[in-house]
Amino acid sequence: MKGFLTSAAGLALISTTAAADWPQWMGPNRDAVWNESGIIDKFPEGGPKVLWRTPIGSGYSGPSVAECRVYVMDYVTKDDIKKENFIRLRLDGEERVLCLNAKTGKIIWKHSYPRKYTISYPSGPRCTPTIHEGKVYALGAEGNLWCLNAQDGAVVWSKDFVKDYKAKTPMWGFTSHPLVDGKKLICVVGGENAEAVAFDKDTGKELWRALSSKEPGYSPPTLINAGGVRQLLIWHSESLNALDPETGKVLWSTPLAARMAMGIMAPRQSGDYLYAGAVWGTGVALKLDSSKPAVTEAWRGDPNKKGKGLYPMNMTPFVQDDVMYGVDQPGQFRAVKIDTGEQLWQSWKPVTGKDESKPVYCGTAFVVKNDNRFFIFNELGELVIAKLDPKSYQELGRAKLLDPTGVYSGRQIVWSHPAFAEKCIFARNDKEIICASLAK
């Protein structure tokens, strides 16, 4: 864990919830590490026991879990959301923030509001709610930001990125999960000189704003420690930038323009190296200066050069001991050295369930580490237990949890990051959210 612990140290103060909680996207420290003990090493016959199922609306928003409650967003509409397209659709519906009992799945409260959609692939909200000190921070697909009381769903404060900042909703909606840092809630907003905005997390007062871009992009705000300081990473449609998280001052910037602004992954740090990448060979590995906030380029992706790099679509790679593990395109799961881009091995099996496969465009699987092995939730609705190391992929078990209800490129998919808490997995599709036990 050499490299990953370096970056995780800077995030340790984000959450004050118990170790058994999963209070935001990718876990307590946004590092995809699940620290609970007493977790199964292999699946029981027939797969893990599903403790409850609760019907919900559609959406890509993953669940979060805090203090025995589950929080998730969805969209309820009578219009057809299963349309494959790269154009903006217009739908009428209702966005919702739901709070459920983590033990029973019973809905405790709902916060709902009418919301017209003007986005492509309009299944619903993209962002996982962030839970912190009794508040829920939820961002809808069209830029409605809510701070709600975690107990009863009452509105504490709210923002509308389109109205308040004259931001334009991205083609695929607002996707950047809000980040709590101290007294701040940091969001990717868009709008003039407001690519990134820090709000007072308790009042909603703007504390600072920074950067401009043609499009805000889709990558979440990310914190790292490097050069003796904390750095806030903002990757928009034109460049990867590091800011002072207290003031918004730009510390450094490097060009990184993803095609169609489709930079989605959170930049990953491993020791002195930092990587961000996207489909069609977009990517850059940077060497972080150890004495000050600065970078030099180690290598850059090239769509014409094979055998180098990792270019994910919807997932953020896991980094361990200077090796990245994640889904390249079109659908291969790879191990790649972060300092050189060398591809060490590949396997189709985590994503498709097959040793060999035809291309699976925008293939997706989410990777979470627990103890000495990994839980991989793929787009087929399957949960896989596997060992990952620089030499090979070793599958230990596979179980079907959910039906894939979304649609992309002629296939059914689930593109929602699950939560791991209470010795369970909490996962959703466009029809239901479930809790399945992973306790020994």
Describe the structure.
It is a single chain. With 440 residues, the chain is mainly β. The protein has a single domain, classed as YVTN repeat-like/Quinoprotein amine dehydrogenase (Methylamine Dehydrogenase, Chain H), CATH 2.130.10.10. The chain is built from three helices and 34 strands. The strands form nine sheets. A four-stranded antiparallel β-sheet has the order 1-34-33-32, with no helix packed on it. β30 and β31 form a beta hairpin. The longest helix has 8 residues. It is globular and about 50 Å long. The N terminus is likely disordered.
Strand content: 35-45%
> Helix coverage percent of residues?
under 10%
Question: How many E-type strands?
Answer: 34
Instruction: Find the CATH superfamily.
Output: YVTN repeat-like/Quinoprotein amine dehydrogenase
Domain module tally: 1
Name the overall outline: globular
Mean pLDDT: 94
Straight-line distance between termini: 25 Å
Assigned CATH class: Mainly Beta
Cα Rg: 20 Å
Short description:
By secondary structure, the chain is mainly beta. The protein is built from three helices and 34 strands. The strands form nine sheets. Strands 1-34-33-32 form a four-stranded antiparallel β-sheet, with no helix packed on it. A four-stranded antiparallel β-sheet has the order 2-3-4-5, with no helix packed on it.
